[in-house]
Amino acid sequence: MPWARIDRGCRLVDQWAYWKFGWPAVMVTDTALFRYPHYHTLRDTPDKLDYDRLARVARGLEGVVRDLVTATPSN
Fold first, then answer.
1. Model confidence over 30-63: pLDDT tens digits?
2. N or C end of the chain: smaller count of CB under 10 Å?
3. Closest C-alpha among 28, 25, 18, 35 to residue 56
């Protein structure tokens, strides 16, 4: 994929399966897999999530996607 930079650790994320087959996928990360000791383990449970911050990120991403969808292409 010439348009995407694959950093160390990206093959551990769910999007890798899509990229491997050439399907478009977007990865938004806070790099938790490098900082969060419970990442994708049995100890990675809902009680450890920060739902307020998760909601803020989701609202921000919604805004980005809306802007991308409605943007006028520049030539």
1. 778 778 899 889 999 999 988 999 999 999 999 9
2. C
3. 28
Q: Which residue type occupies 32? A: A
Which segments of 4-50 does DSSP mark as H helices, in order? 15-20, 32-35
Alpha helical stretches, state H, the chain:
15-20, 32-35, 51-70
Instruction: Please tell me which residue, 25 or 9, carries the higher pLDDT value.
Output: 25
The Cα–Cα gap between 36 and 26 comes to 21
Encode 44-64: b = buried (16+ Cβ within 10 Å), e = exposed: eeeeeeeeeeeeeeeeeeeee
**pLDDT top residue among 6 and 48:** 48
Burial class (CB in 10 A: 0-12, 13-18, 19+), 10: middle
